[in-house]
């Protein structure tokens, strides 16, 4: 038969890496042969390696994407107990973490040889299913007494709380991530759920159970009945944030040995070395997975924070640095212009547009981080950056404005290259300074950096108003005041445009434009900026004749003067009765 996502006989619709027709399977007696179909783009993994052909015995597996397929031959004998046979628990023992460190391995060379391969097993695994299979193989190699081994995990059942690991067993469910037997023809096995929950959830230590057969004993509900004919088993939890709720389960039979040797003190216990070896595997696995989680987390944070902030987060007080707090910040809201039109023109071919938007967000991010800012969020085709958290510095408003000018310059340069993927796009940027709450919310592995408060809404509204005022960058009065006092005209210029009442806001604001330094390619000279601000003063003083005359001294190519000019002409060059100097904005755009 053919295995695939749309196979007539055997389809696996949940696996995204499975082709419509992926592998051809043929059974010959108690063996299963598989062959990769040429049209399938993703590999088959067998014994941890990609292959185009394989042959399985019962109990063996192959992996495609995230799914493990195990060959089970129903004609193979299983070790389920006969009807009425009960497995009576005759010994349970809890092993404190590192309790066995004082005892040396009896066969140290073999155990250490197997352990030395563990880092390579973890680092070279293609994915989690591959890692699980390799680990179980290594456990069977290191624990010679074991008949079967498994990597298991526990998690809350639907409706129960994940914050209560010591809750009743009925609120947790056990999942076997991967299992294997030393002899595949012996079929599957079912681990003891109660043992796993006892070790991982309740004791959080290695727990050993030894059973014996008692065919006449009644089932009182507390006895352990599980398939496989095993005589002993232990479960070792993995203490690591990188392996939440994971454990290693090892089980076997007496094989003629006296059960008393499994119940003796650890100095003479037959399972001592096996438990110690498994605990070392758990410790090494947990430590290496924790390093992986830390690196992945750093990789995520690098997309949002500058190197200086990353150094802080990597330090001893890193977790506390992310805690939300109220602070003075400067917020930058940058929106991509022309996106909606490009989407309409693209029709159903949206992936190229998505790539172009990602490139645009990259330009925004690079400039925000270049000037020591942090990324709070991406909102479709817009980026939200801010300064002043987790590291406060007096130049946050200047840095935000430098980032805005960098973004504008990048898009201006792109506009001269018709072949560039961002050609035809522009940006609108709003910047505001004030108090806000900033910080990380959510669990440690999924922290979302956020910032909220009136200053964020103001930055967003200023960005919207760039369309109405016909300039690329608008800043609020607080930011404008800081720049006028600290920034040279050779770095950035500020001109107050108008006193406006933004749509949806009750309080008027002074909107100012952030302008690059005077020079080639700039419409406005420094004298032009002075002439415009003099016109604004006359406009607010209701001397509209003087204001109109001064506006004509500003170059006609300047779009920023259009708002005052149009408002004066709309009112026949006469201020309205009881006018307060405010130009209302009646729509969001």
Cα radius of gyration in angstroms: 34 Å
Q: State the CATH superfamily name of the largest domain.
A: GAF domain
Reported for the largest beta sheet, the result is:
9 strands, mixed
According to CATH, the fold-level topology of the largest domain is Beta-Lactamase
- The span between the termini is 60 Å
Q: Can you describe what's shown?
A:
- This protein is an alpha+beta fold and 589 residues long.
- It folds into three domains: 69 residues, Tumour Suppressor Smad4, CATH 2.60.200; 207 residues, 2-Layer Sandwich (Beta-Lactamase), CATH 3.30.450.40; 172 residues, 2-Layer Sandwich (Alpha-Beta Plaits), CATH 3.30.70.1230.
- The chain contains 15 helices and 24 strands.
- The strands form five sheets. Strands 16, 17, 18, 19, 20, 21, 22, 23 and 24 form a nine-stranded mixed beta sheet that branches. It has a six-stranded antiparallel beta sheet with strand order 10-13-14-15-11-12. A five-stranded mixed beta sheet has the order 2-1-3-4-7, with no helix packed on it.
- Helix 13 packs antiparallel against helix 14.
- The longest helix has 31 residues.
- About 7% of the residues have low confidence.
Indicate the topology.
Elements lengths: L1 E3 L5 E2 L11 E6 L2 E6 L7 E3 L2 E3 L1 E4 L4 E4 L2 E4 L15 E10 L12 H9 L1 H7 L3 H15 L5 E9 L15 E10 L11 H11 L2 E9 L17 E6 L8 E7 L19 H31 L4 H8 L3 H4 L3 E13 L1 H8 L4 H20 L3 E6 L2 E6 L8 H19 L11 E16 L6 E5 L1 H16 L3 E3 L1 H10 L6 E9 L7 E7 L10 H15 L3 H8 L10 H9 L12 E2 L5
Parallel strand pairs: 1-2, 19-21, 22-24
Antiparallel strand pairs: 1-3, 3-4, 4-7, 5-6, 8-9, 10-13, 11-12, 11-15, 13-14, 14-15, 16-18, 16-19, 17-18, 19-20, 21-23, 22-23
């Amino acid at each position: 038969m053919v295995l695939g996502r749309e196979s007539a006989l055997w389809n696996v619709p949940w696996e995204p890496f499975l082709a419509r027709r992926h592998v051809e399977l043929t059974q010959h007696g108690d063996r299963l042969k598989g062959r990769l179909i040429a049209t399938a783009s993703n590999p088959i993994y067998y014994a941890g390696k990609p292959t185009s052909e394989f042959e399985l015995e019962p109990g063996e597996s192959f992996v495609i994407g995230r799914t493990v397929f195990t060959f089970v031959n129903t004609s193979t004998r299983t070790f389920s107990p006969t009807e009425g046979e009960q497995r009576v628990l005759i010994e349970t023992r809890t092993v404190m973490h590192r309790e066995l460190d004082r005892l040396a391995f009896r066969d140290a060379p073999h155990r250490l040889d197997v352990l030395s391969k563990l880092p390579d097993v973890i680092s070279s695994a293609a994915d989690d299913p591959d890692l699980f299979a390799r680990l179980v193989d290594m456990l069977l190699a290191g624990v010679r007494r074991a008949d079967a081994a498994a990597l298991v995990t526990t998690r809350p059942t639907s409706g129960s709380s994940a914050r209560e690991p010591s809750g009743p067993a009925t609120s947790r469910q056990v999942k076997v991530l991967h299992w294997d037997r030393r002899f595949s023809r012996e079929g599957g096995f079912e681990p003891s759920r109660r043992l796993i929950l006892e070790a991982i959830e309740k004791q959080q230590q290695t727990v050993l159970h030894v059973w014996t057969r008692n065919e006449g004993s009644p089932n009182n509900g507390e006895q352990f009945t599980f398939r496989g004919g095993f005589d002993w088993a232990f479960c070792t939890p993995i203490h690591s944030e990188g392996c939440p709720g994971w454990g290693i389960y090892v089980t076997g039979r007496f094989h003629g040995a006296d059960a008393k040797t499994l119940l003796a003190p650890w100095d003479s216990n037959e399972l001592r070395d096996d438990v110690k070896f498994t605990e070392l595997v758990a410790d090494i696995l947990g430590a290496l997975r924790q390093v992986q989680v830390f690196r992945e987390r750093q990789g995520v944070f690098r997309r949002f924070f500058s190197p200086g902030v990353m150094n802080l987060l990597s330090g001893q007080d890193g977790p506390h640095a992310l805690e939300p707090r109220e602070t003075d910040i400067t917020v930058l809201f940058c929106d991509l212009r022309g996106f909606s039109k490009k989407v309409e023109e693209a029709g159903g071919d949206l992936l190229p547009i998505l790539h172009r938007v990602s490139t645009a967000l990259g330009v925004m991010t690079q400039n925000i981080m270049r000037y020591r800012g942090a990324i709070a969020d991406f909102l479709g085709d817009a980026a939200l950056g801010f300064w002043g958290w987790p590291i406060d510095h007096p130049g946050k408003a200047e840095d935000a404005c430098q980032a805005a000018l960098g973004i504008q310059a990048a898009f201006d340069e792109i506009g001269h290259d018709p072949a560039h993927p961002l050609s035809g796009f522009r940006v609108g940027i709003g910047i505001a300074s004030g108090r806000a709450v900033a910080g990380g919310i959510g669990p440690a592995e999924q922290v979302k950096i956020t910032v909220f408060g009136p200053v964020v809404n103001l930055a967003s509204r200023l960005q919207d108003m760039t369309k109405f005022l016909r300039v690329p960058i608008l800043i609020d009065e607080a930011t404008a005041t800081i720049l006028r006092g600290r920034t040279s005209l050779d770095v950035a210029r500020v001109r107050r445009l108008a006193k406006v009442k933004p749509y949806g806001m009750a309080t008027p604001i002074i909107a100012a434009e952030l302008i690059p330094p005077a020079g080639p390619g700039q419409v406005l000279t420094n004298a032009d900026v002075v002439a415009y601000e003099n016109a604004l003063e006359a406009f607010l003083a209701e001397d509209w004749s003087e204001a109109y005359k001064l506006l004509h001294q500003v170059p006609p190519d300047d779009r920023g003067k259009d708002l005052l000019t149009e408002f004066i002409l709309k009112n026949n060059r006469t201020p309205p009765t009881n006018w307060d100097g405010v130009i209302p904005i009646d729509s969001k755009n």
